[in-house]
Design a protein that fits this description.
Elements lengths: L28 H33 L1 H26 L3 H30 L9 H53 L2 H5 L16 H15 L5 H16 L5
Helix pairs in contact: 1-2, 2-7, 3-4, 6-7
Length: about 250
């Protein structure tokens, strides 16, 4: 059965495009997520390689100005990494809201369309068409509007399903935040993380190593967390620990 990679909705065979978001459906959601994860990791590696090359060139050209330029480049890389990780994961509360909004739209359009077609069949609304043309056009439109209604019902069911999962996700987030405040400190994260030379780097330059250490500590305490969920959680709380240090 095909799946929408964005909405995580399952569709019947033969449907190629998601009715909610317009995305092209995929055969396997798991394979798609693995491909996206691999693509993200490859992009991150390429960004880091390109960044290191650019920094080396800047250092060779002008050592006196390289410090500020390095920080600017690393800040751009940091923002790109944050956007990449945030863009991959959508929490269940957002999924529920998106599906509910789509359901209301599809149901409204579908029901209004069916009512209009019924009025046309009853000649309450007269169309300047021959009988054969009218039945053919109204039949096609009726099937389309009926499809909208069906997809609206499916989206509404998905919204309810995601709303229930959102409650569990909120509880998990509260537990993570409680543990994070009690356990995660700047000293614990930086302990043994940097060499003596790396200690002189700015906080912006230390971002990636710190982020990986935080992710490692979180994974050790809470098993089987979604990688996108972890990235989004740590992006949100990174500034809580190191915000005061960054200029």
């Amino acid at each position: 059965m095909p799946w929408c990679p964005k909405c995580k909705n399952e569709y019947y065979e033969g449907i190629k495009v998601c009715a909610d978001c317009g995305c092209e459906l995929v055969d396997s959601l798991k394979e798609w997520e693995e491909a996206q994860r691999e693509a993200k990791e490859t992009a991150m590696r390429e960004q880091m390689a390109e960044l290191e090359e650019m920094l080396q060139e800047e250092a060779d050209q002008d050592e006196s100005a390289s410090g500020n330029e390095e920080e600017a480049l690393l800040e751009k890389a940091k923002k790109a990494a944050e956007e990449t990780s945030r863009g991959v994961y959508q929490n269940y509360e957002e999924k529920a809201a998106d599906n509910k909004s789509s359901a209301y739209t599809l149901l409204a359009v579908g029901m209004l369309g069916l009512v209009g077609i019924f009025l046309c069949f009853c000649d309450v609304i007269k169309l300047p068409l021959s009988e054969s043309s009218k039945f053919m056009i109204l039949g096609v439109l009726g099937a389309m509007f009926l499809f909208f209604v069906v997809m609206g019902v499916i989206s509404m069911k998905n919204a309810g399903k995601y709303a229930k999962k959102a409650e569990s996700e909120k509880e998990l987030t509260k537990e993570l935040e409680k543990w994070f405040v009690e356990y995660m400190t700047a000293d614990k994260i930086d302990d043994g993380l940097f060499t003596q030379e790396e200690e002189e780097l700015s906080d912006e330059q230390k971002y990636f190593k710190r982020f990986d250490r935080m992710k490692e500590l979180l994974s050790e305490r809470f098993l089987n967390l979604n990688e996108g969920y972890m990235d989004r959680f740590l992006d949100k709380h990174y500034q809580d620990i190191f915000g005061d240090k960054e200029v």
